[in-house]
Amino acid sequence: MPGAAKTVEQQIRARFDGLTRAERQLASHITRHYPVAVLGSITALAKGAEVSTPTVVRLVQKLGYKGYPDFQTVVRAEVEERLISPIAKHDRWAGGVPDTHILNRFADAVVGNLQATLGQIDHAEFDAVAGLMADKNRKIFAMGGRITHAMADYFVTHMKVIRRDVALISDTSNAWPPALIDMGPGDVLLAFDIRRYENNVLTLVEMAADQGAEVVLITDQWVSPAAERARYRLSAHIEAPSAWDSTVAIQVLVETLMAAIQSLTWEETQARMKRLEELYARARFFRRSK
């Protein structure tokens, strides 16, 4: 079966330029509504994408599958990967473990994740996200789930130095209304969501999008359902030899994004940094070296 090392979406992206107009229309529909669009019948998929059934057959065959049932089998396996529990994940990694130290195995997995992540990021899309967040006329909000909320917090802590009007939204729903009151059309919501995808992230993304906010989603290679309402999406590879997924590749994306924004806003950012240093010195925030 094709694409053992690639997700279905990666396979589609790799072959997109060689597709016909109708096949591109179908491929775009699949990636926008993945995986829901391809879990139903071939007729339903064709109708949803406004293409013919033979177009569906041609596309899956171009991707290297025998037919639509073969294609769906791989999609369902990806869905199972999304929902895997930490215990099942640990058991899978524990089987057939090579005779090397955990430091080496984990580092190899992380380096592989980073290479795969950087290899699939669209530079134009990344630059567009940086430009969006550098626009001082837009407020920026960030939120994450149970694990990824720490990534949102890290992002906001640094972005508050880079520019004004940046806020962290709590991952508890009772904190959303005050944040949503201040979120207007054109403002930016950066949302983090990795498997096992959380309903509260999806709900807030939907509410923000309904208010006209520009949603930027950072997710994993299997893609959060929140992607359907996001304007931009950056996917990171996260699997590691542990009961939990690795967020190293996400951290690299976040830090690189902040560096890109900083370069676009440097005049304002430099002034803010100088003023901040003055305030730190006045408050004696840091210990002085002897």
What's the layout of helices and strands?
Elements: H1 8-15, H2 21-32, H3 42-49, H4 53-62, H5 68-82, H6 86-94, H7 102-120, H8 123-134, E1 140-143, H9 149-162, E2 166-168, H10 176-181, E3 188-193, H11 199-210, E4 214-220, E5 232-236, H12 248-264, H13 266-283
Parallel strand pairs: 1-2, 1-3, 3-4, 4-5
Domain HTH rpiR-type: 6-82
InterPro entries: Homeodomain-like_sf, HTH_RpiR, RpiR-like, RpiR-like_SIS, SIS_dom, SIS_dom_sf, WH-like_DNA-bd_sf
Keywords: DNA-binding, Transcription, Transcription regulation
Task: Describe the overall structure.
With 290 residues, the protein is an alpha/beta fold. The protein contains 13 helices and five strands. Helix 3 packs across helix 4 (53-62) and helix 9 (149-162) runs parallel beside helix 12 (248-264). The longest helix is centred in the middle third of the chain and has 19 residues, at 102-120. The chain is globular. The mean pLDDT is 88. Pfam families: HTH_6 (PF01418), SIS (PF01380). Residues 6-82 form the HTH rpiR-type domain.
Could you name the key traits of this structure?
290 residues; single chain; transcription; 13 helices; alpha/beta; 55% helix; 5 strands
**How would you sum up the major sheet?**
5 strands, parallel
Average pLDDT rating:
88
Total number of helices: 13
- Structural class call reads alpha/beta
* Unreliably modeled segments: none
Percentage of residues in helical conformation: 55-70%
Tell me the distance between the termini: 65 Å
Spatially, the strands of the biggest sheet line up as 2-1-3-4-5
Portion of residues in beta strands equals 5-15%
The Cα radius of gyration reads 21 Å
Number of strands: 5
Please trace the helix and strand order, writing H or E for each element: HHHHHHHHEHEHEHEEHH
Morphology: globular
